[in-house]
Automatic annotation (TrEMBL), chain A:
Pfam family of the protein (one): Sulf_transp
Coiled coil location: none
Family statement: Belongs to the TsuA/YedE (TC 9.B.102) family.
PANTHER family: INNER MEMBRANE PROTEIN YEDE (PTHR30574), SULPHUR TRANSPORT DOMAIN-CONTAINING PROTEIN (PTHR30574:SF1)
Its membrane topology: Multi-pass membrane protein
Transmembrane segments: 12-32, 53-74, 86-103, 123-143
Protein name from the UniProt record: YeeE/YedE family protein
Main location (coarse class): membrane
UniProtKB/TrEMBL annotation, chain B:
Protein name as it appears in the record: YeeE/YedE family protein
Source species: Jiella avicenniae
Transmembrane segments: 41-61, 82-105, 111-133
UniProt cross-references to InterPro entries, sorted A to Z: DUF6691
UniProt keyword list: Membrane, Transmembrane, Transmembrane helix
Keyword Transmembrane helix: yes
Amino acid sequence: MPLDTVTPFTPLASTLGGVMIGLSAVLVMALFGRIAGISGITTGALPMRRDDWDWRLAFIAGLIAAPLVVLAVTGSPVRQTVPGDLVAMALAGVLVGFGTVMGSGCTSGHGVCGLARLSPRSLVAVLTFVATAFVTVLVLRHIV
Amino acid sequence: MRILLGFLSGLLFGIGLIVAGMSNPAKVLNFLDLFGTFDPSLAFVMGCAAITAFIGYRLVWRRKRPLLLADFQIPTRQDIDGELVAGAALFGVGWGIGGFCPGPAWTALPLAAPGTMVFLPAMLIGMALATILKARKAALA
């Protein structure tokens, strides 16, 4: 598997990025009084669903603009390696979309905002999705 | 104002994902590969983000209401039900296959990797399916 490349351990950058994500969650709470969960923001961004959809759509636009702003500021494009098996990526997308709505949250809603609220539901959700993700990678990389 | 500040909040979140390395599926998958090319960086991301939000939320909640909307809407449920666990379990399997959760999938859109262009619409279809199922179940109850 070409993706099996080593990525360097980046504790400082990951701490800084984590603080930025946390500050964004605090901003969303201070401004809009809502949880900054990306799955909830995505499903709530449709005009027919709620009356306060406009800031959610703008939030998603901000997420999409991020790599372009990083390119404009630093002059170097954001590097990433995305798995190339398109059938697997389609399956992964459906599972992530369906699972986050069924389970009421994703890495941000449960993992950041929920843990910050000391929510028992979010703790259970985080332990569950990290566990099944560990097992999935173990099976796909080391057993199959 | 709502739209401008919503955009800036999303931009901060997205740049945070990129700085943290979470926008790169290869790094996410290595975090999940405990017995292979393990990269523990992402534990710092979720940990530091949650600690920052823990402190910030408590400062924000001293106010009666948020700045731009009428009230705080914070989840109140405490029960652990089957849907929570099953949904989280399915999400984890998808996360382990693709290396994307919803935030990084949006951030990856303008980079337009083929895997992203398949993952993102599939994710929206999955969200729509679950939303329809939930609405149907609520209507029956």
